[in-house]
């Protein structure tokens, strides 16, 4: 939920303009996930406020490095990455940090605790650094025992070497407090407000408003796409389930999801056309959200920002966002029962959509930017004090 706007830090210069680096993601334009969306939305607003924002962007392969450019006022620095699930992020971050140490900024924000091994370099160079720790990555099935140990160690290193930690959900903040006895800056994402937009593009897919269900997710076990598909197959649904998403390193899981489907399930793969994607969200009868370990999820915020009735996997992160506006499931049988209820004449879509919009109003990108700006100024003046405001619905 939206947190009260932080009061200015005592002694901070409220007018100081900073040079801020964003490191550790695929960069912008945002085409992948929550980190990239946050960088685009926050970065453009920080630029509008007069700050300089440097975003490190990932390029495929290792042979070429595109020249630096600009996007929405942000300075882009491109660095390559190894095409490997275990090394892609680290290889890109290593090259990004090498460039940053030679082209210093006032503050750096490192996204993903997996990048924690590079934090001592920031501290040695006396560049204040905050780490956005993301969700509980070590719980993901794609990582074996060694990968899980790495992520648990990386969490510990992020705690020890960061000047501040950013959590995007109360549940993540609770985890770091209980496991490491540390506070965090709780900064959630914003929800794009797209309720009421046109449905003109749906005809390209042979769809009409309110006559389909929607899933948007990377194909990973923790996102429970297979459970949702299985539940639909078990149900008496008369409407199609539209599945948007894929995954570069999950071939086996993708095959399992497709094998579970029947002719009511339509797989679109990745949809990068944002206008079309907005219309898919806004005009779905129900949005199904199966994510379980990633904290506050931008796909969920996008759905409620579109005013779409939402059913979500029953975990604390999703309940934190949806509260009583959502309906919840935990098994394929739950999905089947929900489907049939959601297609009944008794479903009050108007009320559910209004409830979704009400929840979305609490997630505002300007408020998020205020928090990043306040944190950057605190770090620039040498303060490690965090701003942990707990608001429960």
From TrEMBL:
Question: Where do the coiled-coil regions begin and end?
Answer: none
Query: Molecular function terms in GO for this entry?
Result: glycosyltransferase activity
Entry keyword set: Glycosyltransferase, Transferase
The residues covered by the Glycosyltransferase subfamily 4-like N-terminal domain are 33-180
| Pfam families documented for this protein | Glyco_trans_4_4, Glycos_transf_1
Outline the extent of the Glycosyl transferase family domain. Answer: 212-326
- InterPro entries xref list: Glyco_trans_1 (IPR001296), Glyco_trans_4-like_N (IPR028098)
Q: What sections of the protein cross the membrane? A: none
Domain of life the protein comes from: Bacteria
PANTHER family given in the database record:
D-INOSITOL 3-PHOSPHATE GLYCOSYLTRANSFERASE, GLYCOSYLTRANSFERASE
**Protein name stated in the entry:** Glycosyltransferase involved in cell wall bisynthesis
* Species: Nakamurella panacisegetis
């Amino acid at each position: 939920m939206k947190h009260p706007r932080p009061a200015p830090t005592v002694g901070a210069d409220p007018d100081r303009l900073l040079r801020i680096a964003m490191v550790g993601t695929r960069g912008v334009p945002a085409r992948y996930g929550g980190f990239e969306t946050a960088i685009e939305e926050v970065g453009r607003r920080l630029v509008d406020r007069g700050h300089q924002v440097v975003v490190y962007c990932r390029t495929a392969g290792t042979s070429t490095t595109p020249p630096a450019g600009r996007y929405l006022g942000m300075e882009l620095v491109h660095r390559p990455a190894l095409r490997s699930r275990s090394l892609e992020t680290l290889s890109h971050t290593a090259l990004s940090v090498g460039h940053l140490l030679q082209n210093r900024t006032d503050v750096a924000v490192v996204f993903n605790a997996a990048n924690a091994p590079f934090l001592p370099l920031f501290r040695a160079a006396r560049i204040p650094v905050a780490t956005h720790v993301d969700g509980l990555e070590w719980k993901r099935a794609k990582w074996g025992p060694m990968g899980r140990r790495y992520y648990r160690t990386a969490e510990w290193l992020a705690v020890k070497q960061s000047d501040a930690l950013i959590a995007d959900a109360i549940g993540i903040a609770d985890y770091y407090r209980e496991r490491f006895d540390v506070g965090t800056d709780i900064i959630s994402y914003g929800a794009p407000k797209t309720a009421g937009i046109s449905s003109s593009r749906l005809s390209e897919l042979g769809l009409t408003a309110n006559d389909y269900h929607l899933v948007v997710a990377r194909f990973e076990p923790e996102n429970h796409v297979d459970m949702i598909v299985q539940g639909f197959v078990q149900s008496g649904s008369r409407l199609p389930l539209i599945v948007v998403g894929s995954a570069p390193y999950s071939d086996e899981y993708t095959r399992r999801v497709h094998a579970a489907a029947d002719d009511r399930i339509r797989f679109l793969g990745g949809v990068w056309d944002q206008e079309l994607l907005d219309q898919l969200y806004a005009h779905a009868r129900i949005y199904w959200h199966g994510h379980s370990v990633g904290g506050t999820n931008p796909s969920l915020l996008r759905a409620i920002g579109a005013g779409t009735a939402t059913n979500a996997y029953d975990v604390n992160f999703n309940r934190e966002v949806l509260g009583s506006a959502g309906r919840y499931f935990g098994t394929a049988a739950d999905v089947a029962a929900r489907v049939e209820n959601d297609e009944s004449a008794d479903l009050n879509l108007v009320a559910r959509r209004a409830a979704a919009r009400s929840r979305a109003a609490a997630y505002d990108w300007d408020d998020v930017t205020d928090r990043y700006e306040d944190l950057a100024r605190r770090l620039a003046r040498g303060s490690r004090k965090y701003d942990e405001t707990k608001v429960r619905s």
